[in-house]
Design goal:
Elements lengths: L8 E5 L4 H12 L3 E6 L2 H10 L4 E4 L5 H11 L4 E4 L14 H29 L3 E6 L12 H21 L4 E8 L5 H7 L2 H8 L10 H12 L10 E4 L7
Parallel strand pairs: 1-2, 1-4, 2-3, 4-5, 5-6, 6-7
Helix pairs in contact: 1-8, 3-4, 4-5
The structure holds NADP nicotinamide-adenine-dinucleotide phosphate (NAP).
InterPro entries: L-xylulose/Carbonyl_redctase (IPR051737), NAD(P)-bd_dom_sf (IPR036291), Sc_DH/Rdtase_CS (IPR020904), SDR_fam (IPR002347)
Keywords: NADP, Oxidoreductase
GO molecular function: carbonyl reductase (NADPH) activity; L-xylulose reductase (NADPH) activity
């Protein structure tokens, strides 16, 4: 794919580490102006050191008002990747209200909040845009010890569809990517134990977990004009896990 995002301003959340970090670097390679939001200062500093063209913003996305104000300062924004996420893994009966609130705040409410600001501006500017939400295979399949995480990603998929429905007439496309396990810090949390990993791997027809770059390729495709007729989709990057 010959991709260029020259002249486009792209906001990436959760860009301090993992998928979001490599995505920010890739989008910058494709000539986008990248605005990278994340929580931990030192990760953003090393990102900026690696690519000084990337603009960084240290922020806790759980703060509703601060997030809105910060995103407004970076407008105009043409594209958003709502990638920030957390996973609290525990048996259903042990999960707490705090676990629920944290997961929903970061995985769902922040998408709602940030996308509202950007979409409102895109509509006023009448220029269209593309939003990609990073969901998970866990949105559509129950996974042990993942009750809140699964529920949050199920909400991401439905939020994606309803945003696609309402924003489509304004030429704003909204899609999700739904990866299987990727061995980032989050992936290691659930799947570093070889016994647990084996149970999951046995359910993936391709017999392996996804690489960060494979998730990024799907996000880039959905952001780009190469997917100009695709909106409201949940694209699995799961080696066939959801097909079984
Ligand atoms: P990761 O390595 O843990 O990175 C998550 C990023 O989100 C970090 O930079 C983190 O900041 C940031 N973040 C978390 N809470 C935040 C908050 N309140 N405010 C601002 N930033 C916040 O995870 P990842 O594996 O790259 O995951 C990226 C996305 O992919 C998530 O939505 C995740 O659910 C999804 N996903 C992951 C997997 C997997 O197996 N890894 C599979 C399917 C889907 P800090 O640097 O401060 O921690």
């Amino acid at each position: 794919m010959n991709i260029s995002f020259e002249g486009k301003r792209v906001l990436v959340t959760g860009a301090g580490q993992g998928i979001g970090r490599d995505l920010a670097l890739r989008l910058s390679e494709y000539k986008a102006t990248v605005i990278a939001i994340s929580r931990t200062k030192k990760f953003l500093e090393t990102l900026r050191h690696e690519d000084p063209k990337i603009m960084t913003l240290e922020m806790d996305l759980r703060d509703w008002d601060a997030s809105r104000a910060a995103v407004k300062r970076f407008l105009p924004i043409d594209m958003v990747v709502n990638n920030a996420g957390v996973a609290t893994l525990a048996p259903f009966l042990q999960l707490t209200k705090e676990d629920f609130d944290l997961t929903m705040d970061v995985n769902v409410k922040a998408i709602f909040n940030i996308s509202q600001i950007v979409a409102d501006d895109l509509i006023k500017r009448k220029c269209g845009g593309s939003i990609v939400n990073v969901s998970s295979q866990a949105s559509q399949a129950a996974i042990k010890d993942h009750a809140i995480y699964c529920a949050s990603k199920g909400a991401v998929d439905m939020l994606t569809k309803t945003m696609a429905l309402e924003l489509g007439p304004h030429k704003i496309r909204v899609n999700s990517v739904n990866p299987t396990v990727v061995m980032t810090a989050m992936g290691k949390l659930g799947w570093e134990d070889p016994e647990k990993a084996r149970v999951m791997l046995d359910k993936i027809p391709l017999g392996r977990f996804a690489e960060v770059d494979e998730v990024i390729d799907a996000i880039v495709y959905l952001l780009s004009d190469r997917s100009s007729m695709i909106t409201g989709a949940a694209l699995p990057v799961d080696g066939g896990f959801l097909a079984t």
